[in-house]
Amino acid sequence: MLSLHLPSEGLPLKPAVVRSPFIARGLGKTFGTQQVLDQIDLRLSKGRIYAIVGENGAGKSSLMKILSGAMEPDRGTMEWCAKPYEPKNPAQALSHGIAMVYQELSLALDLSVAENLFLGNEISRGGIISASLQKRRTKEILEALNHSEVLPHLKVGDLSPGARQLVEIGRALALKCDLLILDEPTSSLNQQDCSHLFELLRKFRIQGKTIIYISHFLEEVEAIADEVIVLRDGKITLQSQMSSTTRQEILRHMVGREINQFFPHRTRPATGGPPLFSVQDLALQVGAPKNSLQLYPGEILGIFGLVGSGRTPWLRAIFGLESFHSGNFLWDGRRFDTDNRPRPEELWHRKMGFVSEDRRHEGLAATMSLEENMALSHFDQYASHQMLDRPRLTERCNTMMQQLRLAAQGSKQNIDTLSGGNQQKVALGRLLDQGSRLWLLDEPTRGIDVAAKADIYQGLHQWLAAAPQERGILMVGSYLPELMGLCDRIAVMVQGRLGPFYPQGERGEAQLISEALGEAS
Amino acid sequence: MKESLKKLAPFLALAIVFLGFTIYNPNMASLVVLEKLGQQTVIVGIAALGMTLIIISGGIDLSAGSLIALTSVIMAQAITQWHFPAGLAALLGITAGLLAGWINGFLITRLKMVPFIVTLGTLLLYRGLAKALAHSTQIKVPATILSDFLAALPPERSWQLLPPGAWLMLLLAALTAFLLTNTPWGRHVVAIGSNEATAHLCGIHVKRIKIMVYSLGGFFTGLAGLMQLSYQEQGDPIGAEAYELDIIAAVVIGGGSLSGGQGSMLGTLLGAALMTVIRFGCQLNGFPPWVTQMATGTIIIIAVAIDQLRRHRLRPQLS
After folding, report:
1. Full strand arrangement of the beta sheet holding A98-101
2. What does the alpha-carbon distance between residue A316 and residue B198 come to, in Å, rounded to a whole number?
3. pLDDT for res B2
4. What is the pLDDT of residues A42-53, one digit of tens each?
5. First CA to last CA across chain A, in angstroms?
6. Is residue A521 a part of any domain in this protein?
7. CA–CA–CA angle A430, A431, A435 (5° rounding)
8. B96 vs B83: CA distance, rounded Å
9. Fewer CB within 10 A of the end CB, N or C, for chain B?
10. Is A417 in Cβ contact with B202 (below 8 Å)?
């Protein structure tokens, strides 16, 4: 019954709320020395879908956090329903009818689907949660999302990434909102669920809701949005009707320079001869796809996959950070398999290095200094007779900082006080300083500004060019321009299965994306 | 600048509290009192050195108080029942401490149990074992060379200022501080507490180092047990009750963070000394025990609050 209608139909809406647009004037936000938002003016009407696009670090997330009350702006004002809108926290924003679905899944894994859907917004009677009513509503919502198999009582921690994302979207539907912000809602969804979500959003539009849709998939943006807003370095560089702009124009405003200039020019190395590194039939679980690859000296190999495609666990399994079920790989004249499992300490010792996609939780040790973070994998190199040679550490760190154009007060600065870009340079500087010859990089420029990206690309290029016959890079990620700009060969991973590697340039962006979404099979 | 202020904070606090007591009662600032302070800080102070390592590595050890009692009972038993020479008895007790610490570390790393729970279990276990060994009575120990550690200094040795046990504590603190800041091993301990996932990714032997940290913690606790024996001249199965809380408090007042990655040996000693000064100052002036407790509690909360404020101001919230 309800699946034919809208999930939030029948919820009382204040008429004033429905009529009023959202206005922001001169919003600004600064962290330390980094200005993440600068003079943002926005005017949103009801019944329209706005796409906000921009690179990672362009300020999208910060802007949305301000709108949804998760962060307060330093400058500027907002208006909602012709009244000043100054939310101090997400709960206040919600009471104004403004809700956000987060990209980084913000679910409580130990709670059930129903409990998550109504978290902070519980249906209660006389102070007691009405579990049965919540379950019923949950069922209706999931039916509306075409996924009645996701049962209300299931624990969210037991669900697949895709199903979790549906729960996250469902949470927005459970809220009584007039302005709905979705941050990359489709990153873990398959094509069918995507189009279903789009249908729902179009219904919302007819209902008069305002929708902000954040994505870096331009195909999606073209398909769903009425208007596109491009952010770059904290400023709005383009706001236009979807119909009166082109993808080229959007890209140009996103990047601010031609993508080709952004990446250093490299000549593709020859792929003959013995490989530097090879993986044979590596499968993470019983029955999981067996994936192989060969990386030749001087090569940058790229694996493109969306969130949940299995790219990250597969790469981590090589470095011994996750276990695997079968297969093997050869490195440094040694075979690693289930009898001889790779361990990070041994791989570092054999000069293989790894950069995690999760800088905050895995990449860096927050209470330690810049130079110590650089040396974390190889303090032994700085010790003689178990004594640390600190002056030498400082000296080498300064060299690394110059090579990667790392801006800091000094090598003893606490890592926590650096910007994301500089932190990421430290994470890469660790491999540089350690002397490893094969770098496994997981989303190496996630969430950092454009200038830092350019420095990192330059750094990777110089490092590789210095001794191409004995070095190589294997990187995985979902940021296609980067993979296309850097890699010599690219393969796509979908649902844990790694496709064949093709030389970069043989397949276009659209083709790679459609493969990654699991369309071409 | 702010970092150095943080290091100075426990020192300042100690100076202010000491000065306050001295103004109130000038007797506070005499050599005898200084000696007493030394005596009373040593037991908690030595155990707190090990606890500092454990807390920096992101762990906790609730069994320390019980272990002090257990090791002191073992030493007392060895001297009185088994007729060990004093030195050997001390060695046996300290080794037992090391072993007990190793058991904590083993359970935490190999069986992947939470430190809080494991050591809550061993808190009862070691206490029970101490009572069983001593048949639930105090074991009087005749005066041996061990008694000298915390005995009051005879007048001809008053130039030493502090009893030998206090000097041992200072020496060990210096050694441990050096170990922590100037060796790869020490930096690995900090890295594990700062971010265990990062440490693992960087090829640091996380489990091995954690076991070593808990073992070292047990070693220091055993040494504290020796001091307890020396001070009380008996092995007491119900002694050192709840000392683990004083020990943890010393680390925290000294700038240690229960989330790991932060802490210093000097800070810990100052923290331990601060608590002794408060306790002793109150005693000297005849204040009731509740004053001591409330003052110590307040100091702990202020110490942690200052640390939190400082962290919030320093950290830019980059997302």
Report:
1. A98-101, A179-183, A210-214, A49-53, A227-232, A235-241
2. 13
3. 54
4. 999 999 999 998
5. 35
6. no
7. 115
8. 18
9. N
10. no
3-state helix, strand, coil in chain A (%, to 5): 35, 25, 40
Position A334, amino acid: R
Residue A434 lies in a domain: yes
Range of the domain at A60: 2-256
In a domain, residue A149? The reply is yes
Confidence of residue A57 (pLDDT cuts 50, 70, 90): low
Query: In A45-102, at which residue ranges do the beta strands (DSSP E only) sit?
Result: 49-53, 75-80, 83-84, 98-101
So what's the pLDDT on residue A249? 84
Query: Residues A78-93: what's their mean pLDDT?
Result: 89
Distance in angstroms (rounded) separating the CA atoms of residues A372 and A368:
6
Quick check: A31 and B317 CB within 8 A?
A: yes
- Checking if the pLDDT of A17 tops 50, the result is no
Give the chain A residue nearest B199 (alpha carbons): A376
The answer as to CATH 2.70.98 being correct for domain B2-313 is no
Query: What is the CATH number for A346?
Result: 3.40.50.300
Chain CA centroid to CA A114, Å: 26
The pLDDT tens digits for A450-459 are 778 888 999 9
Instruction: Mark yes or no for CB contact A345/B204 under 8 Å.
Output: yes
B31-56 and B243-253 are packed helices; what angle lies between their axes, rounded to 10 degrees?
80
A441 and A297 co-located in one domain: yes
Tell me the C-alpha distance between A268 and A501, whole Å: 14
Q: How confident is the model at residue A20 (pLDDT cuts 50, 70, 90)?
A: low
CA geometry: angle B163, B165, B167, nearest 5 deg = 75
Residues 6+ apart with CB under 8 A from B19: none
> How far, in Å, CA of B187 to CA of B180, rounded?
6
| A419·B190 Cβ contact <8 A | no
**Nearest-Cα residue of chain B relative to residue A389:** B182
Element (H, E) at B197: helix B196-201
DSSP string for residues in A4-26: GS-TTTTS---HHHHH--EEEEE
Residues A447 and A415 in one domain: yes
Q: Among residues 47-86 of chain B, which lie with CB inside 8 Å of chain A? A: none
Nearest Cα to B246, choosing from B62, B17, B18, B19?
A: B62
Radius of gyration for chain B, computed over Cα atoms and rounded to the nearest angstrom: 20
Please work out, in degrees rounded to the nearest 5, the angle formed at the alpha carbon of residue A163 by the alpha carbons of A158 and A164: 70
Using only C-alpha atoms, chain A has a radius of gyration, in whole angstroms, of: 24
- Asked if residue A46 and residue A68 are part of one domain, the reply reads yes
Size of interface A-B (CB pairs under 8 A): 108
Q: Does B264 touch chain A (CB under 8 A)?
A: no
**Residue closest to A303 by CA, chosen among A437, A487, A518:** A487
Total of domains in chain A: 2
In this prediction, residue B212 carries a pLDDT of 97
Averaged confidence pLDDT in chain A:
86
pLDDT at B1: 43
What DSSP designation does A48 have? -
Joined together, the tokens standing for residue A67 give 């709108």
Say if the Cβ atoms of B187 and A379 lie within 8 Å. yes
Kindly list the domain boundaries of chain B, sorted by start residue. 2-313
A16 confidence band (pLDDT: 50, 70, 90): very low
